[in-house]
Amino acid sequence: MEDYPLLNLFWTMLWFFLWVMWFFLLFKVITDVFRDHTLGGWGKAGWLVVVLLLPFLGVLVYLIARGHSMHERDRKQVEEQQAAFRSYVQRTAGSGGGPADELHKLSALKDKGDITQEEFDRAKAKILA
Questions:
Q1: Rounded Cα gap, residues 41 and 39, in angstroms
Q2: Cα dist. 94→82, 90, 124 in Å?
Q3: Is 31 helix (H, G, I), strand (E, B) or coil?
Q4: What does the pLDDT look like over 39-51, one tens digit per residue?
Q5: Is the pLDDT of residue 90 over 70?
Q6: Rounded CA separation 25/58 (Å)
Q7: DSSP tag of 45
Q8: pLDDT digits (tens, 9 = 90+) for 50-73
Q9: Rounded Cα–Cα distance for residues 58 and 118 (Å)
Q10: CA-to-CA distance for 29 and 47, rounded, in angstroms?
Q11: Is the pLDDT of residue 14 over 90?
Q12: Is residue 1 scored above 60 in pLDDT?
């Protein structure tokens, strides 16, 4: 370890971190290009060529030109995912009821006289099976 001082280790780690962050940003920009529905095919192809052939300049220009709308697309996607999750939870947990709710409704029908005791027992056995 004497031939590789601590400061060199720090600089190596810093450059590695910046390299990883650069790839993260590059993939984020490429993903945003394909996710944008306002761009046509030629626009997407043009941005992709610029970002891949001139990576540093292309990403910098993309962030300056379209950075604000990039944030809006991210926010819109998160809102759509949250709405889909809420809808799924409401569909599966909210309206289904369960055996206790069905037994309560069945009991109310029997108390009103809409079904007989025998029909109640058969339906109850079906629910509990």
A1: 7
A2: 17, 5, 22
A3: helix
A4: 899 999 999 999 9
A5: yes
A6: 12
A7: H
A8: 999 998 999 999 999 988 888 888
A9: 77
A10: 9
A11: yes
A12: no
Report pLDDT digits (tens) over 94-116. Answer: 655 677 778 888 888 888 888 88
Residue 7 burial (C-beta neighbours within 10 Å; 0-12, 13-18, 19+)? exposed
Token pair for residue 28? 């984020």
Q: How far apart are CA 43 and CA 107, in angstroms?
A: 64
Q: How far lies 116's CA from each of 24, 61, 106, 109, in Å?
A: 68, 76, 11, 9
Task: Locate 88 and state its tokens.
Answer: 């799924």
One DSSP character per residue, 57-124 reads HHHHHHHHHHHHHHHHHHHHHHHHHHHHHHHHHIIIIIS---HHHHHHHHHHHHHHTSS-HHHHHHHH
The tokens describing 64, both together, are 């300056």
Q: Is residue 36 classed exposed, middle or buried when 0-12, 13-18 and 19+ CB atoms within 10 A define those classes?
A: middle
